[in-house]
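User: Show me an example of a complex going from sequences to structure tokens.

Assistant: Sure. Here are the input components:
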Amino acid sequence: MELENSDNAENSTSSKSGNRENSEGKQLNGLSNGYPEKHKSHKSDHKDKHRDKDRDKHRSKDHKSSSKDKEKHSSSSSKDKDRHSSHKSSSKDKERGDREKDRDKDKERDKEKHRDKHRDEKKSSSSSSSKDKEHKSSSKDKEHKSSSSKDKDRERDKDKEERREKHSEKERDKDKDRHGSSKDKDRHSSSKDKHRDKERDRDKEKHHSSSKDKEKKEKRSEKENSEKKLRIEMKLETEYAREDSAREDSVDEDEPKLVIKEEAQSQNDEIHNRNICTKWKVLVGTCNTLSIKFRLKSTNIAISTHEDKFYSVQDLNSYKKELCSVVRWEEEKKDDGTKWTFLEHKGPVFAPPYERIPSNVKFYYDGKEMRLSEEAEEVAGFYARMLDHDYTSKNIFNNNFFTDWRKVMTKQEQATIVDLSKCNFKSMHAYFMDMAEKNRNKTKEEKQAQKEKNEAIQKEYGFCTIDGHKEKIGNFKIEPPGLFRGRGEHPKMGMLKRRVQAEDIIINCSKASKIPEAPPGHKWKEVRHDPSVTWLASWTENVQNQVKYIMLNPSSKLKGEKDWQKYETARRLHQSIDKIRREYKDDWKSKEMRIRQRAVALYFIDKLALRAGNEKDEDQADTVGCCSLRVEHIELHEQKDGREYVVVFDFLGKDSIRYYNEVPVEKRVFKNLQLFMENKNGGDDLFDRLNTSILNKHLNELMEGLTAKVFRTYNASFTLQQQLDQLTNPDDSLSEKILSYNRANRAVAILCNHQRAVPKGHQKSMEKLKEKIDAKRQAIKDAERQVKDAQKDAKHGSVKEKTIYEKKKKLLQRLKEQLVKLEVQETDRDENKTIALGTSKLNYLDPRISVAWCKKYGVPIEKIYNKTQRDKFRWAIDMAGPDYRF
DNA sequence: GTCCCGACTTGAGATGACCTAA
DNA sequence: TTAGGTCATCTCAAGTCGGGAC
């Protein structure tokens, strides 16, 4: 793996306010073959100003420390912009080209599959084709969204069986006609041996009836194949039987129940279709990675078989696990929208009551010591804690705080304290800092005691019982009071978030459960029994008047199931994406403005993974997404840096993270944008005939369950798969493989504009790492010299000298390996400094892609997912085999 | 069609536990 | 053993989206 670190542009600067650097140029250089769109993004202009100052300071330092590092900030240097733009264009074009190629490949694959399927259909009995017809007719049902109860499933099964029976009868008639056979094939026999015998008989019959040599040959090989598969199947059955009996012996409440059912009557057809695991009937799910043909009960979707490929028992068992978890979810699903039937928990944990600060900690107003009332002191403490934070340098924050603080003051305090700038919180600040320090420096025993206390609370309040399963709760602690930390230029930042009491809390649990007890002297606002929602408790916070919830942990069944569904929807989009793209491209030419706007917006959402962009209230930070873009957020350039029809996006997105991107678009999009901008001011909506609900309504018509958000998930997962394919070299070392994974992950994070502030001390740690690398290189040089000398000695020397030579050689080898590891670490860390990988990993990347990659290339899953992530993605770890494709 | 709200997911920053090298 | 750095976990703000009321 070539490590890219020269010619990489670097954004310098950082500040405690969390200003971001940007290293996309680096990403693109590092991954010239097919990185996604590059964004330069930063926080608000306000922060940019800070950053510019900081950057100037750092720039000289950076320049000295490394001539390779180049300043890159969109607004500060047009030259830099130009340079990056050219990087971007080539990379983007390539990326787009790759995507197109990939799509073409996918199409080819699909065609190939289709052809194979067709061949199979011709070869096999008509019962299979009847199934395919069913498949087609029910393709709309493919969405596992539509859950079904056991009874309904049974009914549907019955129906299917009846239909199958009819087909079989027809088939038998045809067979009779074809072969003149009087043998009646009993398709309903449950005995597998009989089926196999009949299969052989049928093969024999075919063999006899054939007169051409070619046909004979084919028949013979088919028979051989069939026999070979039968042998495998028998072996598998033995394995399964053994495993099943073992499973029955050790029934674990948390283990998924095995409810895969035998479907003997269709076995002839299935075997004829050259499937090796046909006796298993999947209830629901799309398992297109499986090379075994499964029939899905509620959807009747058949998964095509990968020809001539056999799977090990181990692989099949992992597939079976997949089926188990899918089945378990499906079995427990309810039709009426209810999420549970039984829910019991202990209620939330409240923030500890306020403890007054010691009397030696003073507050001064206008230079005079002042003893505050308890409530005023508590709120003053919130501010004092944040004294060294950027927030307290902002007027809005200070004004909001002061207004709310005065509300909790006594009349006397109100009369005295009239100017925030005259308040001195320094002593209080020092006290809180000291407390934090003391907390950090607790002895081992004290820390252990604290840990045990927390664990006890977690044990008591951190779990709930939901439909017989013990599940972890995500956030069982009520948010403590404090000052509201709105992001960006939030007009409400600094307002007081008041203490939440039991009287604010709505408890949700089942009637039959033990209702949690409110703290002594208090009572709940309400106890509700609403099984249509998943939250356990809720309250309305006072700053934005929003409802806050206590919900389940991501590792819970309910959340996991939702997650799985999300990725399945994205996979369905993968199937329809070409059609959708064709359609929106057609719509660029529509006579109706609203349709053109919708089509152009959709193009941006698809191409750039933009968020939908709901409208926002006046009392929220001014951030936008695609639908809420304003004219001032884009610039059109017919020519820019040698490229045609360039759109420059520059706006604040979610969390006031700046999105900056220069994108060459198709001419028709460009002309449309010109049209949309005609006679509009900067503050006018770009898409004035569009909003998220119109867009999503349209998307749902294109594909059930499709919303703007799905494009982000789809493009992220698709990019990961594509990047992993491109970047992974099976012969790489483990650390190099992980670097490849991180680079693929990074490509997605860049696509989704997931940025982070440069970690504190990043530069220092990089310098240290560089020193280490230099030292290692020096050590290698020395070792090489020693090896040479030892080699000379060993040539005519004794055994001892030869041993020394061998040892030196080994040492050299070890040093070289260590150097590679360090270099990989350096590249990875530097490329990662402004990119947050976590968000995409947790929310956008189908975990089965990563799991499959790990299994395929022998990378321990722990290297990719930490414990929490493994818990969250347990379903995927169990499901995905090494050949899973998104 | 629009507005509003509830329920959920997504997201960055803060905090603190843990690991590693000296 | 300890300091310093990294990474996992926690926190809570800020999105998306669907549905109901008008």
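The lines above are the inputs; the final block is the predicted structure for all three components together. The first helix of chain A runs from residue 24 to 30.
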